[in-house]
Amino acid sequence: SQHPYLMVQPCFAPLHGIAAFIDLDRTLIDNSPMLIESLPPTAIHTADIQYTVYIRGEAVERSETVVLRPGVAALLRRLVVSGLLLILVTKSKRSRVRAVLRALVDPHGHLFGPLAPHDYDPLSPRVMCSEDIAISARSHTSNNIRKSISRVVTYFHTTYDRFTNTIGVTQPLERPLLRRCYILDYTPADWVVEDLPHLLHIWPFTLGGGWSGDVVVEAGEWDS
Fold first, then answer.
1. Are 32 and 99 in contact (CB under 8 A)?
2. 171 contacts: CB under 8 Å, gap ≥ 6
3. Which residue has the higher pLDDT, 213 or 26?
4. Could you give the 3-state DSSP secondary structure of residue 59?
5. Worst-scoring range by mean pLDDT, 13-22, 24-33, 167-176?
6. What is the C-alpha end-to-end distance of the chain, expressed in Å?
7. Residue 22, helix vs strand vs coil
8. H or E element at residue 18
9. What are the backbone angles phi and psi of residue 192, rounded to the nearest 5°?
């Protein structure tokens, strides 16, 4: 069932010009079956997802069970209510990210916005996937390409106007001015060195971490 903390009103522009760049795997979700067994039943929010990836030009169907990290739903809701613009930055493929967002993390588009209808286009100005990171670096793959604030901001600005027209928004949306940003990612090494002062360190959400991997960052630390 839909987690109550994820049922919030859409927030298309930040009130304070502050953005949160958020990683997906090991930060918001995990996909370990053993992890599901280790969590109390009241804390389990899971989804079975299916998606298609292309390996050497051939379509491969994949399926997995993903688990929403305890505390994430409340944290994301508080950030949105506080007026922060959430931007997902992940090296996962668009097809998988779409499946995770629709099934578990943001099924109504209230957190990261509505998604484009096809995976061959960017999913959203607020969802930067593996393909988008590769394109930003003029590469065929996102492997060995570090995330950076400048790449994310450029991606957001270049896709914003085109995307609002593509999804059929009836009222024009003013492009938010990003004055400040924070990074929520369990892997500092995924980001360029100059961006590390903006990164809030958290423990990875994995089987080994168990409950000690819960998100402990309070919304007040983001908008102060």
1. no
2. none
3. 26
4. strand
5. 167-176
6. 34
7. strand
8. strand 18-22
9. -65, 150
- pTM exceeds 0.85: no
CA-wise closest residue to 184 among 78, 103, 109: 78
Band of residue 171 on the pLDDT scale cut at 50, 70, 90: very low
Q: Is pLDDT above 70 for 72?
A: yes
Burial string for 25-52 (b: 16+ CB within 10 Å, else e) reads: bbbbbbbbeebbeeeeeeeebbbebebe
Handedness of CA 206, 31, 78, 164 (dihedral sign): positive
9's tokens: 């009103």
The one-letter amino acid code at 104 reads L
How far is C-alpha 51 from the chain's CA centre? Answer: 17
DSSP state of 214: S
Q: CA 172, CA 6: separation in Å to the nearest integer?
A: 25
- Quick one: pLDDT band at residue 1, thresholds 50, 70, 90? very low
Q: 80-113 burial, b if ≥16 CB within 10 A, otherwise e? A: bebebbbbbbbbbbbbbbbbbbebbbbeeebbbb
Quick one: pLDDT band at residue 88, thresholds 50, 70, 90? very high
